[in-house]
């Protein structure tokens, strides 16, 4: 079954374990699928437990792979499976409801909705799941139990572990803003100038070839450099891409073996490595610089709207490097 079909079975307003006992039972085709055929060799509790366990492991493996993979829908399906399992247990334990035949009956589909919201909110640490659940089911009757389960699951998971997105950021050592400790008031009054980098590498109109070459060699992992008015005031004018500087140096002064060696050894992202297999067969690919020489990547620089460089029309093409 697909995600949509599986989720529709879990959220269905019927009971797997009471197909032949009451009118609230699920259709025979659905029962045969989840209970091992027409003979019903397997218990619905067994199949749901196996499905939830195996799917939990497979989703964890898929998320850890170096390929784009979703986490929201698989988490929603796992939570719905767990909620459906609890609902079927309640339906078996109380076939006539908690208050008898005259009281409200037990519908495992409602348990699946609450379980899906609670588990997904615990994984993502998001409270907007309640809105998504209401839009998915089209019902507001389950809003109160969904909100209660969502807040409890979110509170417990936040106390034990960060969200799955923050965990991936920490494992991959991606740059991120750390959480401020709530117990220290002095941290909230800390100014940016005490934690920011003061010695920012930047270029000006007076930057020479030697200085520019030294900057490119000393910072092989930077992709862009700020362009300022001068080294004293350092008023930001825009930014210049590293590939644009390499292209200008190659066009004006020819290839530099040391600089090209640094470029080949520069740290690349997985997307760059994946795209490099297709770039080799392009007619516009430059084997010396290792990049496409097109108008898009050559002119991929940023200039502020209020930059004084707009007033210098005649010297626009010389604002990066001076000889």
TrEMBL record:
Q: How does it sit in the membrane?
A: Multi-pass membrane protein
Organism name: Anisakis simplex (Herring worm)
Where in the cell? Membrane
- PANTHER family recorded for this chain? CHLORIDE CHANNEL PROTEIN (PTHR45720:SF5), CHLORIDE CHANNEL PROTEIN 2 (PTHR45720)
Name of this chain's protein: Chloride channel protein
UniProt KW keywords: Chloride, Ion transport, Membrane, Repeat, Transmembrane, Transmembrane helix, Transport
Q: What is its main location?
A: membrane
Q: From the record, give the transmembrane residue ranges.
A: 42-65, 72-94, 106-133, 140-160
Gene3D superfamilies reported for this sequence: CBS-domain, Clc chloride channel
**Which terms in the GO cellular component ontology are assigned?**
plasma membrane
InterPro entries, alphabetically?
CBS_dom_sf, Cl-channel_core, Cl_channel_volt-gated, ClC
| GO molecular function annotations of the record | voltage-gated chloride channel activity
